[in-house]
């Protein structure tokens, strides 16, 4: 009797991952069809990431800093920051 219960338990442990695999493969095939892809709206991932970040921040009670969000930096300042960051990295690498 114990052998039958072990076989049934093993089959159940394999059934769920197998079913999830079949469902995932089916969803992948359905979503790769052109008519379905056209019906799904294209989303800007940057906007989506910002929306999700805002929702997570509000859920954990964290206010988003607005000091840098609207500020654009010019290319000279960007290149200067990149150089400074690279110098800091190189100095840390030299210490280790």
Key terms:
4 helices; elongated; 96 residues; single chain
Task: Please tell me about this protein's structure.
The protein is mainly α and 96 residues long. The chain has a domain at 1-63. The chain is built from four helices and no strands. The chain has helices spanning 2-32, 34-39, 45-60, 75-95. The radius of gyration is 26 Å and the shape is elongated. The chain starts with a helix and ends with a helix. The model has no long low-confidence stretch (mean pLDDT 76).
Summary?
77% of the residues lie in helices and 0% in strands. The chain has four helices and no strands.
Question: Any chance you could write out the topology, listing elements then pairs?
Answer:
Layout: H1 2-32, H2 34-39, H3 45-60, H4 75-95
How many β strands by DSSP? 0
Instruction: Summarize the main sheet.
Output: none
Instruction: State the secondary-structure class.
Output: mainly alpha
What is the succession of H and E elements? HHHH
Mean pLDDT across all residues, rounded? 76
Taking all Cα atoms into account, the compactness measure Rg is: 26 Å
Unreliably modeled segments: none
Distance between the termini: 63 Å
Overall form: elongated
Percent helix, as a range, is over 70%
């Amino acid at each position: 009797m114990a052998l039958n219960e072990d076989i049934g338990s093993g089959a159940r442990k394999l059934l769920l991952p197998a079913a999830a695999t079949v469902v995932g493969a089916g969803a992948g095939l359905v979503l790769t069809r052109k008519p379905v892809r056209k019906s799904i709206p294209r989303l800007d991932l940057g906007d989506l990431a910002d929306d999700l970040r805002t929702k997570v921040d509000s859920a954990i009670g964290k206010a988003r800093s607005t000091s840098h969000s609207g500020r654009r930096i010019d290319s000279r300042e960007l290149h200067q920051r990149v150089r400074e960051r690279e110098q800091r990295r190189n100095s840390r690498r030299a210490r280790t």
